[in-house]
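Action item from last week, closing it out:
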Amino acid sequence: MAAHRDRREADADAKSRKPSMKTKTYSYLVWVGIFSCLALVGPTLCVLLSCYWAYISSPKIVPMKTADVRQALEKCSSEPEIQAEVDSLFIRFGDKGWMDLLDEDLSTTPGLTRCGKALSGYPWWEIAPSGTHEIGVPSYVQVRFGQHSHYQYIRIFRTGSDLSSIKSPFEQVTNNVYFKP
């Protein structure tokens, strides 16, 4: 009788150690959730790591100096041609709001386009309204170029702009063209 009781107690202990159906279902759901998160985060993590690897393994571009920018402007086009193209952009798009200029917007500005591409393979053009970053600075067309960790800027102001408010770090390249090294 004692052996039979010990056996029943052992069976009861074994049953209490077995997970219930609720516990099994819950643990399966937890594992499914973990694997789902890994499936979603995994590709994102891979993309981030590959971007970081591309950044650290890419050749570093030496920042340009004002003389380099002046030389690129002279090589690609004449200053009067670029100035006329910038003025035409202001006529077409105005100067009241910030605007990114896309390739189709630049189809009538071959000199400006050549100049931007000579500075960088992938420049970014935009129109900035008056006083955008500095108080009292007139509206301008900005060409942003360089690498992700260090952009440089050229600002080309429209003809007749009051340029007395432009201060360091911008340096004058030619009449209405300023450069931020």
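Closing note: The first strand starts at residue 99 and ends at 101.
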